[in-house]
Write a structure and sequence with these properties.
The complex is a heterodimer of chains A (122) and B (716).
Chain A: E1 4-8, H1 12-24, E2 28-32, H2 35-45, E3 50-54, H3 62-71, E4 80-84, H4 89-98, E5 102-105, H5 110-120
Parallel strand pairs in A: 1-2, 1-3, 3-4, 4-5
Chain B: H1 2-30, H2 36-55, H3 59-76, H4 84-105, H5 113-128, H6 135-146, E1 167-174, H7 176-180, H8 185-195, E2 198-203, E3 221-227, H9 232-238, E4 246-252, H10 271-280, H11 297-309, H12 325-351, H13 359-382, E5 383-385, H14 387-390, H15 393-404, E6 407-413, E7 418-420, H16 421-442, H17 446-451, E8 457-467, E9 470-477, H18 484-493, H19 505-509, H20 533-541, E10 546-552, E11 556-564, E12 569-577, E13 580-585, E14 589-593, E15 600-603, E16 607-612, E17 615-621, H21 622-625, E18 639-644, E19 650-655, E20 657-665, H22 669-672, E21 679-684, E22 690-694, H23 696-705
Parallel strand pairs in B: 6-8, 13-22, 17-19
Antiparallel strand pairs in B: 1-3, 1-4, 2-3, 5-7, 8-9, 9-11, 10-11, 12-13, 12-20, 14-18, 15-16, 16-17, 18-19, 21-22
The chains are: A alpha/beta (122), B alpha+beta (716).
């Protein structure tokens, strides 16, 4: 059974790229367009092995989304990777404080993305 | 790599939407919206453009988007005020961003570097305050995204790049926080194991007594020996995600017996007392420390559950799908054939003499209804809101306003009005031209407006609405209106009308559509461009539309365009002329009459005219003009179909008979044969024969070109 990855991003382009890279690496991919949608998809699909989320999104941003994931006992140990365009320590600290397991710096190359997923996936 | 190409196409599609969103939100800001969500949406749009552009290595686009994004971030955080000048700059920046996108896509002109650089400077001034960013800061920002960032920190590069003996000693003491973020020691060890063989020691000497144990904290320390001649950075990268959430030391391993960090002093445990307490107490003893390894059970459980339920991807079903336009066109073509085939079948059935009440006839009627419904539904697929054209206009208005020094507010209405895609695409140019015209010629300068007692800001209104099966576009301004004296003077000077021609106000206004007419005293950069209103009118006419103007001096002018909703079907009047079947577009027909021989008058002994509603209109014999026969319909026979051209000129088309009115599918003659004067297109009739659709304007113009007094107007 391949692992299920949930990606949460409001950009269609980014969703396509994530889908391409992750499916290419043999993962099963489910997608959502913002934080609220992400929580819905997570609930409907019974959880994911790894969650990848963008930060800047309408309705509920990435930080709010991670907070909600961590607040739910069913998902509080699900690894969450944050997509970030910045690689400075500030942004990383902020992501970690919000409960992120790790991060992926955009623009990512597919190998790096898959590597990051592999690192946090049990 | 096809998929990447597809994603690239997706990206540019998305860019279009993001740019539209960006502009819409900026306009909201300009109109005074001051909520955080609007500026957030603006930020997100730019951010997404930048993100995608980064993925495709579109550096120029990324650089510009970054500068814009930096300012927006300041505004979003409330560190800089989002005032009117800022929003105006943002609007212009959005325009340049759109240019960058177009250039990156490869179908736009090169970006005006000067303009782009000037805006970058302006944005940076707004971001960093007066004086702009210090040069080196700007440089630093460039570096920030010019290179592929590597997600690791290298605090001690001066250390030996690789451990002396090819081995590392790593001491790891995670904080509770690390586990709360779903990082796992076991996974970190697994990663280290990928670098080389590891041996792990667990130091549990830090464990407090059970009753003092905080289950959310960690008290264990791992000492790992890694046998791998790798750089320290590579070892530290394994811990990239957990830095700050653990105590970590990485140092070259000298020998097997490296000193451990001094274990915290621990009290001797009174096991017997502890056991007694545990047995006495009702509560079970908590697990000592969060289970370090093996991997988190919760994740496994989640995975198992996912496997069991095996729900398909639950992403919400999209409300729209994207379809290649070619497929839709093919469908429309086939439906067109279906309509024709259905009509042919109906004709055969009628010819076979079956009773109208027979099952076949009734079934056929139902089929006809269904066919009509399919046709309408298919047409609806191609229908698009005019919004895509309208939303390009604010930028144009801003630019023209800037060039002319006028203050303009654009008001749009009816953006959701739907019309066939082909029509939408071809609307952009005439609307652009008329808007330029409205601002350049229609609106006055702010000073002149104040002098005339108007608000200094002119209003241009662009509206779309449906009216009796056509789409109507109105472009109105509240400027000075048409100067009829001047228009008339120019028309006379250019020999377009006779000096003594008696023209109504409307007719004078419509003179501006005549070829070779241009009111601008100096051909300005804005409306000039060598294109007159006659070109606009021609392009509207080629869509089967008409254009007119009405004007009130001092109050402004209104251009009205009316267009068919689709270019694929046409309501037509089927007529016969010299054994040929022809179709006249219903929209051009005013009236049909059967003239008696005495109703026809001859001017100069040969050009027939007919009296129609207090005026004489020229008679055009269709069969003769088209070359079907040499002589006109004998006087007293035939039917006169009075038509009105786009320019308002009337003529009577003489035909042998009228067969009826029906909707026909338009087949282009040019793409199947070649252009024929007087013929707009062709269609296929129910009996399978090809019928030509008349180009009424050309027929009438052709008839008028003959040396004859053009219009004979009765004093009415």
């Amino acid at each position: 059974m391949s692992k299920t990855i949930l990606t949460v991003d409001d950009s269609r382009t980014m969703r396509s790229m994530l889908l391409l890279a992750l499916e290419g690496a043999g993962y099963r991919v489910i997608q959502a367009e913002d934080g609220v949608h992400g929580l819905e998809v997570l609930a409907e699909s019974g959880g994911a092995d790894v969650v990848i989320t963008d930060i800047n999104m309408p309705r509920m941003d990435g930080f709010g989304f991670i907070e909600n994931v961590r607040a739910n006992p069913a998902w509080d140990s699900t690894p969450v990777l944050v997509l970030t365009t910045e690689s400075d320590a500030d942004k990383k600290a902020r992501a970690r404080q919000a409960g992120a397991t790790g991060w992926i710096v955009k623009p990512f190359d597919p190998a790096k993305l898959v590597d990051a997923v592999r690192r946090v996936a049990a | 790599m096809d998929t990447m190409e597809e994603i690239r196409a997706t990206f540019f599609q998305e860019c279009e939407e993001l740019l539209a969103e960006l502009e819409a939100k900026l306009l909201l800001l300009e109109a005074g919206a001051d909520d955080g969500e609007t500026i957030n949406a603006v930020f997100r749009a730019v951010h997404s453009v930048k993100g995608g552009a980064g993925a495709f290595g579109l550096d120029a686009l990324v650089r510009f988007a970054h500068v814009l994004e930096t300012l927006l971030d300041e505004l979003r955080a409330g560190r800089k005020p989002c005032d009117e000048p800022t929003v105006r700059t943002l609007l212009r920046a959005a325009d340049v961003l759109a240019d960058h996108v177009a250039a990156a896509r490869g179908d736009g002109p090169e970006v005006d570097e000067g303009r782009s650089a000037a805006l970058v400077a302006e944005l940076e001034t707004l971001t960093h305050g007066e004086g702009g960013a210090p040069a080196d800061l700007a440089e630093a920002e460039e570096d920030d995204f010019g290179f592929q960032p590597v997600a690791l920190e290298i605090p001690s590069l001066e250390d030996a790049p690789a451990a002396a003996g090819g081995a590392w000693r790593i001491v790891l003491r995670p904080h509770g926080r690390m586990y709360a973020n779903a990082n796992e020691t076991a996974l970190l060890l697994r990663e280290l194991g990928r670098l080389g063989p590891i041996s792990v020691e667990l130091d549990d000497s830090g464990l407090p007594p059970l009753d003092a144990l905080d289950p959310a904290e960690n008290h264990l320390t791992w000492i790992i020996r890694l046998e791998a001649p790798v750089a320290e950075a590579a070892v530290r990268e394994v811990f990239d995600f957990v830095e700050g959430d653990c105590d970590l030391s990485v140092e070259p391993a000298d020998g097997p017996a490296a000193p451990l960090p001094p274990p915290p002093p621990t009290d001797d445990l009174d096991i017997a007392a502890l056991l007694a307490a545990a047995q006495a107490g009702p509560e079970p003893a908590p697990e000592p420390a969060p289970a370090p390894a093996p991997a988190a059970p919760a994740t496994d459980a989640a995975a198992t559950q996912a496997a069991l339920t095996a729900t398909p991807p639950a992403a919400a079903a999209p409300a729209t799908i994207r379809v290649d336009l070619e497929r839709v066109d093919r469908l429309i073509n086939v439906v067109g054939e279906l309509v024709i085939q259905q009509a042919m079948l109906a004709q055969r059935v009628t010819e076979s003499g079956l009773a109208r009440s027979s099952g076949i006839s009734v079934g056929l009627e139902d089929l006809e209804l269904l066919t009509r419904e399919i046709q309408d539904s298919v047409m609806a697929i191609r229908a698009q809101p005019v919004k895509s054209v309208f939303q390009r206009m604010p930028r144009l208005v801003r630019e023209v306003a800037e060039q002319t020094g006028k203050r303009v507010r654009l008001v749009t209405d009816g953006e959701a009005t739907e019309v066939d895609k082909t029509v939408v695409e071809r609307l952009a140019e005439p609307i652009t031209h008329m808007l330029r015209n409205a601002i350049d010629h229609g609106l006055e300068t702010p000073e002149a407006r104040i002098a005339a007692g108007k608000s200094p800001e002119g209003v241009v209104r662009l509206a779309a609405l449906h009216r009796s099966g056509r789409i109507v576009i109105e472009i109105s301004d509240d400027g000075c209106g048409i100067n009829r004296e001047r228009v008339r003077g120019i028309a006379v000077a250019k020999g377009l009308i006779a000096e003594d021609a008696a023209l109504t106000e409307d007719e004078i206004d419509n003179l501006i559509f005549l070829p070779g007419f241009s009111t601008a005293e100096t051909v300005s950069d804005i409306s000039g461009r060598g294109v007159g209103m006659d070109v606009v009118r021609r392009s509207i006419q080629s869509l089967g539309g008409r254009i007119s103007i009405s004007s009130t001096p001092g109050r402004g002018s209104t251009f009205t365009l009316s267009l068919p909703l689709t270019l694929a079907v046409l309501d037509g009047m089927v007529v016969g002329a010299a054994e040929q079947t022809l179709v006249a577009p219903l929209s051009t027909i005013v009236e049909s009459l059967t003239p008696k021989a005495g109703d026809l008058h001859y001017v100069g002994g040969r050009d027939a005219v007919i009296r129609f509603r207090e005026a004489f209109v020229p008679v055009v014999d269709v069969a003769q003009t088209m070359g079907f026969r040499d002589t006109p319909v004998p006087a007293g026979q035939g039917v006169a179909v009075v038509v009105e051209t786009e320019s308002g000129a009337r003529a009577a088309l003489m035909v042998d008979a009228i067969h009826g009115q029906r909707q026909v599918v338009i087949k282009s003659l040019e793409s199947n044969f070649r252009q024929v004067e007087g013929v707009a297109a062709a269609t296929i009739l129910g009996d399978g024969r090809v019928a030509l659709i008349l180009d009424v304007d050309a027929l009438v113009a052709n008839a008028r070109r003959r040396p004859a007094p053009a219009e004979l107007k009765l004093a009415s």
